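Researcher: Please predict.
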Amino acid sequence: MKIRLPATVKAIIDTLQAKGFEAYAVGGCVRDSILGRKPDDWDITTSARPEQVKKIFQRTVDTGLAHGTVTVLLGSGVHEVTTYRIDGEYEDSRHPRDVTFTASLEEDLKRRDFTINAMAYNETAGLVDLYGGMEDLQKRRIRCVGNPLDRFGEDALRIMRSVRFSAQLHFSIEKKTWEAVKVLAPTLSRISAERICAELLKLLLSDHPEELKTAWEAGITRVVLPEFDELMKTPQNNPHHCWNVGEHTLNSLCQVEADKVLRLTMLLHDMGKPACRTIDPEGIDHFKGHGEVSARMAEEILRRLRMDHDTIQKVSKLTRYHDWRVEPAERNVRRAVNRMGRELFPLLLKVQTADTLAQSRWYREEKLDRIRKVRQVYRKILEENQCVSLKELAITGKDLIGLGMKPGPAIGEVLSGALEQVLEEPEKNTKEYLLDFCRKYRRK
C-alpha cells in the first residue's frame, strides 16, 4: 500500500525521523487516501514530545499542548502534530481527565474511535493497521476499536460520528457497534450543542442525508432533535403525499444540493405539521398554517443548536414561505423577489422543487411546471434589471429631501409608495416619473 503524501506532510515526517523520532500520517487522511477521496486535512502523530516538536520546527502554534498537539506551519502547509498518548479516565463523556504521553504507536492507535480511523502511514513503514481498518474499508463498515461500549463511554460524540461516517462513506455500522450506539445514545445529552450541531451538519451535507433515519432508529434524534421523532409519527393521509412527514422530510433532503441553508431548510420545513394536523370528515389530513409554525420552530431549534444568526434568518424565512405558490406573472414574481430578496428567491424555488419531488405523483408535473415558469420569469426580471427593492429605485431619500421633505419616517413611506408603482410597472422606474409621483403623493 502506497499513499502519496503532500510535500509538507512528507517534510514534517522526514524531519522528525531524521531527529530520531517516529512520525506517521494518521486517521482520516489515511482512510480517505485509501478510498481515493481527497483528505480535508492531514494530521501527524509522533513519538516526539510537544516541546521537542516546537524545538525542531521554526514556526509552530500551541494548539493543545496539554493533549500533545502542536500545529506546525511549513511552507503553505498547516498540520497538527500530536504526540502518541494514552487517554486517562473520561469524566464528562467527552474529554479525558488527563493524558499520558507514550512512545508506543500501538497505544496511541488503540484510543481512537473506529478502525478505519486508526491506521497510520509513512513511507518507511508503509501502512500500519493494527485493528483491521483495511478489512473494514473493504467490507464497507463502521466498527469501533476494541469494545464499542468503552469507546462510546469515553466520548459520546462518537455515537453521532458513527452515523455521520455511515452517511459520508455510505457504510453500514457493524452489529456490536450498532448495539452500543442504541444503548448509549442517551449520553449525547452531555455533549455541547455546538458539537452536536457540527456533526448533524456533516451528516446533512453528506451524499446520503437520508441516513438521518439511522440516527432516528438508534434513538439519537430523540436526544438531539426530538422534533424529528414527532415527524416520524405523523401520517399524511392526503393525495399530495405518499409518506409520513418524517419520510417525506428524508426524501426531500436528497432532492437539493449539499448546501447548508438548503439542507437545513428541507430538514425543518415541515416541523410544524404535527401541531397543525387536522382531519376532515372524509379522513383527509390537512396542515393549514404549518409554514408559519415551522418557521418559528426552525428558529428555536437552530438557536438551541447554536447556529449562526445569518443561517437562522435564511432558513427561517425559506421555511415560512416554502409553500407559497407564486404564479408565473411578472408582477407576481417581482413582488415575491421583493419579499424574499434576490439572494433567497432562487433558493426558494429549489426548496419548492425538492418539496414537490418528495411528494406523491398527484399533480406533480403541474407543480413542477409552475416552478419552471416562475424561474423563467425570474431570469427575465434579472436580465432586464427590473427594480425589485428600495435600493434599486431611481430615487433615494436625498432626492426627497431635495423636494423639501424633512428627514424621518415620512420619507420611507413615500419611497415605499414609489416602489409599489415600480413593482406594478417597472418602466416607471425613472427619476423624472418618480419625483413627480412623490410630489403628488405628498399632497394626498
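Model: The longest strand covers residues 77-83.
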